[in-house]
Task: inverse folding
């Protein structure tokens, strides 16, 4: 993936509000470096993240889609990602200043 900023991409709306939403939630056709949660959840959690197995003829066995961007991972990479996410979520919930409503 390139390191170019999303704001330089064609296909973004000229309407500032629409453009801001496209940058926040770019969808499957955008080449992006980062995304953020939308202000209002839609179809949560499947509208934000999904995981599927690929067919047997594909080298990467896991398809992870986050905010419309597909990522194809080997099983070892998927396991490492899972372990890292769990460790960070555990760390996040142990923070003493975190309100109970924000704990996972």
Result:
């Amino acid at each position: 993936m390139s390191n170019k900023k999303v704001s330089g991409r064609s296909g973004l709306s000229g309407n500032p509000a629409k453009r801001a939403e496209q940058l926040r939630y770019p969808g499957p056709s955008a080449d992006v470096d980062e995304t953020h949660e939308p202000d209002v959840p839609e179809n949560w959690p499947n509208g934000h993240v999904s995981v599927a197995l690929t067919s047997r003829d594909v080298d990467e066995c896991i398809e992870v889609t986050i905010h419309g961007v597909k990522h194809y991972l080997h099983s070892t990479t998927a396991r490492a990602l899972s372990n890292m996410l769990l460790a960070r979520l555990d760390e996040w919930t142990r923070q003493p200043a975190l309100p109970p409503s924000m704990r996972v």
In short: The two ends are 30 Å apart (CA to CA). Residues 1-11 have pLDDT under 50 and may be disordered. Helices lie at 16-24, 75-93.
